[in-house]
Amino acid sequence: MVKMRTLFLIFVMLNGIQSCTDSSSNSDIMESNHEYTNNLINETSPYLLQHAHNPVNWHPWGDEALQKAKDENKLIIVSIGYSACHWCHVMEHESFEDTAVARIMNENFICIKVDREERPDVDDVYMTAVQLITGSGGWPLNCFALPDGRPVYGGTYFPKDRWVQTLNSLAKDYQNNREKWLEAAEQLTEGVKNSDLLPINNEAATFTIDTLDKMVTAWKTRFDNKEGGPNRAPKFPIPNNYKFLLQYGYLQQDKNILDHVKLTLDKMAMGGIYDQIGGGFARYSTDVDWKVPHFEKMLYDNAQLLSLYSGAYKYYKSDLYKETVYQTVDFIERELTDKTGAFYSALDADSEGEEGKYYVWTEDELKTVLGSDYDLAKTFYEIGKKGLWEHGNNILLRNKNLVEVAKKMGISTRDVQDKMALVDKTLLKVREKRIHPGLDDKILTSWNALTITGLVDAYAAFGEKRFLDLALKNANFILQNQVTKEGKLLHSYKNGTSKLDGFLEDYCFVTEAWIKLYQVTYDIKWLERAKNLTDYSMSHFYNTERGMFYFTSNTSSELIARKMELADNVIPASNSSMANSLFVLGHYFDNKAYLGMAETMLNNIQPHITGYGSNYSNWGLLYLNQTFPFYEIAISGNKLVDYSNKINAEYIPNKMLIGSKKESPLPLMEGKYVEGETYIYVCVNKACQMPVNKTSLAIKQLNSTLK
After folding, report:
1. C-alpha span between 212 and 617 (Å, rounded)
2. What is the mean pLDDT of residues 81-97?
3. Is-contact 41 93, C-beta < 8 A?
4. 205-230 pLDDT, tens per residue?
5. Of 258, 242, 255, 295, which Cα lies nearest the Cα of 273?
């Protein structure tokens, strides 16, 4: 692969074509009258519709566009982005709305626009190609391909002059040097196909805490122990990283790790990356201080951060974390919830053509709006100090805790809380009158499932029924709209239309959501549905030779490569999610095949996890459950829900709950029902301690087995 990449880079340099670094976020709402309309006009994706009136003859990804490229023997431009992408927006204005640039594109290329969130499979193929060519990736992603779809060159954001140069150079060279292009395409496609080849690990599956210790030791060298998170910018709030580190720190009793997790969560919740008055996190911070966000808000981030902060609250008992969870649920409910109970995908970074304009404040604005409360708000939100950004604008953030603010203002902490609650309410009301960022209102099954999990985790931590109600309403939406009669999942929904075969991310995250719902409702239908999805995934996604799952189903349309998602990122890898669910379902149903598959998958990954832990943190959670006791907590009797709620409120990450108010067909419940009594059984590998009838006694049994 290295040789192929080197040869191809030499070819690129000889032809004077330059790649560029990535940047990442949206477009303006379309007006009613347009000079141009292209083939994207009938799409449902907000991102594609944003480009429907470009002078570029865009086509959606599909057989028709690919056949047109073959018929006309033209190179393909596969241009990929998403609706909340600022630099996608910039490139559209600079190049795709320019008629002279569009003319070059239309005459020499077949131009295909792809929403990466609708078609993560297409994005993965061409992102891999661009990463092999340039060593980096990002969005907008612009990849050039032969008429058969095989990639030959690409990059991310191209300034207009470089884009025009690239277009002209490629068009000319393709006409004059076909053989060279065919050879390059063959080499690059082979690289894409081999990029995630992971042979089955035939070594015996042996999991030891030493492996995780090595992983964390290497990882710690990249910690920022002043501001939290990694010691570089930009900083992404990757929830599965801190979920793993929290569980590892708890089980290993590693105070340094636990302190780092708390520092990171505190800094994120108090930073500019968090919307202090409206709730919800931006996609990432552009600096090391969590101060200046890339202002787009993604559903998948906020869904997972609900889980992270809810779990962290159980351990640290921080009021800040509780406030963060409640406020973020409010944000999701207020700004990302459809009347059906489904959740929209994202809010743009831009409004009125400026990134972040919706969220920032000048001192004069704040003085006018807040009056006598301005001085407190100035101190609380660091106005004119750390909060000062650019052009006289302030990003609301915190650098002092309640006690420090109260001392500085000469009032009680209770007064600070009460007054700031009114300040936030006032500012939010004023902000609502501004022109809002663009909304990506498509509904993705996988991201909705992550949100169900986040809401259930929040319910488990705080017992807030509203959270569970939102989760159940969304779950019923998925059942009614995104599951076919054959048990297949669909990926996308908008305006009453469900479409696109589900990807592995849909199956794995919905499976996780159903398991979570069972653990708070004890309605066995959720476990049965989780098992059905798992069995479907095994039939249509599983590769028995490698012991891993493909990202696309064997019934989906073929791309140039059928890829696997192995490394965790801002969203856990679909394979690590599947492995975790197989492990849990294997315990629920006493299914040795499931347990064996989970073990094989983890063993395949094991040789890779020590080098870069942040890429394997969701795998690390499964590794922890293989190396520490994994508790099967069975509750039988009428007090099931009450006992369960008390156990769920405790930080016990290495557990599963199972329960029934009467006899149950589940193997772990066999022989545990005693009429008129409620008993809790703490078990490991089906070996149970003496049953107890108080949660405090059960928790004592759990604690006694920790080192």
Report:
1. 10
2. 93
3. no
4. 999 999 999 999 999 999 999 999 99
5. 295
For residue 655, how many other CB atoms are within 10 A of its CB?
Answer: 17
Question: Which residues are within 8 A (CB) of 169 and not within 5 positions of it... i.e. 6 or more apart?
Answer: 15, 16, 17
Partnered with residue 16 across adjacent β-strands are none
Cα separation of 131 and 113, whole Å? Answer: 19
pLDDT in tens, 119-128: 999 999 999 9
| Alpha carbons 613 and 617: distance in angstroms, whole number | 6
Token pair recorded at residue 668? 């772990």
Distance CA 241, CA 244 (A): 5
* Strand ranges across the sheet with 439-440: 297-298, 346-347, 439-440
3-state secondary structure of 702: helix
The percent of residues in the chain predicted with pLDDT above 70, rounded, is: 95
Rounded to whole angstroms, how far apart are CA atoms 559 and 467? 40
Q: Are strands 284-285 and 497-501 parallel, antiparallel or unpaired?
A: unpaired
Q: What's the distance, Cα to Cα, between the start and end of the chain in Å?
A: 46
Cα 244 to Cα 87, 362, 576, 618: the distances in Å are 32, 39, 13, 7
Give the model's pLDDT for residue 69.
Answer: 95
Given the DSSP bridges, would you call strands 284-285 and 151-155 parallel, antiparallel or unpaired? unpaired
Strand order across the beta sheet in which 490-494 lies: 443-444, 490-494, 497-501
Range list of H helices, 635-683: 640-648
Residue 405: CB partners within 8 Å, gap ≥ 6?
Answer: 376, 379, 380, 413, 416
DSSP per-residue string spanning 85-152: -HHHHHHIIIIIT-HHHHHHHHHHEEEEEEETTT-HHHHHHHHHHHHHHHS---SSEEEEE-TTS-EE
What span, in angstroms and rounded, lies between the C-alpha atoms of 304 and 317?
Answer: 19
Residue 218 corresponds to which amino acid? A
Helix (H, G, I), strand (E, B) or coil at 499: strand
Residue 136: CB atoms within 10 A of its CB come to 13
Q: Is 563 helix (H, G, I), strand (E, B) or coil?
A: coil
Residue 196: which residues within 8 A CB-CB, separation 6 or more? 563, 564, 565, 566
Identify the three-state secondary structure at position 450. Answer: helix
Amino acid at 705: T
Q: Are strands 497-501 and 542-543 parallel, antiparallel or unpaired?
A: unpaired
Report the alpha-carbon angle 610-612-616, nearest 5. 80
Q: From the CB of residue 247, how many other CB atoms can be counted at a distance below 10 Å?
A: 23
Asked if the model's pLDDT at residue 29 lies above 60, the reply is no
- pTM for the model stands at 0.93
Q: CB–CB of 144/518 below 8 Å?
A: no
Q: How far apart are CA 250 and CA 315, in angstroms?
A: 9
The answer to whether 113 and 130 are in contact (CB under 8 A) is: no
In whole angstroms, give the CA distance from residue 11 to residue 398.
51
Q: β-strand 75-81 against 109-115: which pairing, if any?
A: parallel
**645: phi then psi, degrees, rounded to nearest 5:** -60, -40
Tokens of 633: 């907590």
